[in-house]
Amino acid sequence: MSFSLPVTTKTVKISSAPKKAVVYPRVVRMRNQRLQTYINQMIVYTTQQLIDQQVGNMPSTVEEMLGEYEIKNNQRQVLSLSLSNYTYHEKAAHGLTIIKSLTFDLNKGKLCNLKDLFKPGSDYIKTLSSIIQAQIKERDIPILNGFKSIAPDQEFYMADKALVIYFQLYDITPYVFGFPMFPISVYEIQDIIDENGPLGRMAVNN
To answer: Nearest Cα to 189, choosing from 168, 158, 166?
Structure first.
């Protein structure tokens, strides 16, 4: 089934106090209502997951919470977005931000894991890890305890003709560095990407 792109979204806001507000996108007016419902359910679930992760067992100590989102890619039957949540707890040294991303293949009507972007059997973990290792050296990124490899389900989003692999705060770098993000051109990994998948469609020049 064909889709009208770009996908239309509107912003939904959850607010419980002046310094506590979370916004997230809601997909609207899709032809495929079942897929629209699925996408929105996954967005709401992930938004709530971030809130729960930030609040933990200390809901009374939360002084500030700010949830935001960015649409990273909305073309060629691919919707990729990031949800972020910044929370500051009373007497904490500083606040903490967590980012989660969702990438949907509208052709297949599914949420994509990292492995779904590549040909079956391809060693995407080794290839991506090698590229990231080179970027760490080239960009002189300070690494905690060395970098060996990405996880099979490493977090990512898609932005135009790039796959962006990222890590949470403290995962591989000191807090002051911020979020380590590694953009990788689709053309750099063209030999292992699934030609019929989201990255394959981004690599087509038309």
So the answer is: 158
Give the Cα separation of 136 and 144 in Å (integer).
12
pTM over 0.90, yes/no: yes
Long-range contacts of 115-120 (CB under 8 A, 24+ apart): 115/152, 115/153, 116/194, 116/197, 117/163, 117/193, 117/194, 117/197, 117/198, 117/199, 118/189, 118/192, 118/193, 118/194, 118/197, 118/199, 119/192, 119/193, 119/194
Q: What rounded mean pLDDT belongs to the chain? A: 93
Strand order in 162-166's β-sheet? 156-159, 162-166, 181-185
Tell me how far CA of residue 64 lies from CA of 1, 25, 55, 85, in angstroms.
43, 21, 11, 10
Q: What is the pLDDT of residues 157-188, one digit of tens each?
A: 999 899 999 999 999 999 889 999 999 999 99
Per-residue H/E/C for the chain: CCCCCCCEEEEEEEEEECCEEEEEEEEECCCCHHHHHHHHHHHHHHHHHHHHHHHCCCHHHEEEEEEEEEEEEEECCEEEEEEEEEEEECCCCCCEEEEEEEEEECCCCEECCHHHHECCCCCHHHHHHHHHHHHHHHCCCCCCCCCCCCCCCCCEEEECCEEEEECCCCCCCCHHHCCCEEEEEHHHHCCCECCCCHHHHHCCCC
